[in-house]
Amino acid sequence: MNAATTTNPQSSSVSTTPGSWGGLYTGAANGVFRQSGISFVLLLIISSVIYGYQPQVGASAESLTAFYTGDRTRILIAAVISGLAVLNLLWFAAALRTALAEAGCDDWGAAATASSAAVAGLFLLIISLGAGLAYSIVASGNEPLTSALNDLTWALVVLSSFPRAMLVMAGTFGLFRAGLISNALFGFGVGAVVLGVLGGTTWLSGGFWAPDGVYSRFVWPVIFLLYVVVASRVLSTRGSATKASS
Hints:
The structure is a single chain. The protein is mainly alpha-helical and 246 residues long. The protein has one domain (31-245). The protein is built from ten helices and no strands. The longest helix has 32 residues, at 106-137. The radius of gyration is 20 Å and the shape is elongated. Mean pLDDT is 87; it is low at 1-30 and 242-246.
């Protein structure tokens, strides 16, 4: 079965004049904005490797001190790279919003903008907690506060599953409605939404379904990043086609 072929009229809310975001998006020299999702994925992977393995929920004071003090420089470097990753995520959402609006699907584009802002806000809060702990909080010797903030980080990772799932949903349904993805990619997106929402239920005290378990740390993040890569490729292909036809 082929992709949806319904073509929606161009939204009047998106300007394609040279000075507007729409004009910037469709410009020949600005494919970088359509590829920003891939940049986000690469930067996030690099920052995660540099950051290392964060202590789990309920970790001992010794483990927390060893990680946040011993790896202080690594954590702060990772915070900078993670911040750049968040910027690229917002550029990705802006490019997605423009593509959907131009296809007459600005409702889904608006949902992508709102959900990406929520994801970015939670990501920055998580980054700030890690950087703050490494920079000075652990050194203060307040072990209960250190433990609480470390556990809060894991809780925020779980709760960020909901806006991440919404971002996947907005992109998937919007791109499908605009006729830009196939039924197979639509099915992948719907499955990713379901798995993303399930990521917000990982509250067991230990094991696979815990906040610091395999599903929360690896399975759902990999699915989310894979979606961003696929969506970025769709936007890039669309941009190349638009350039070729102009």
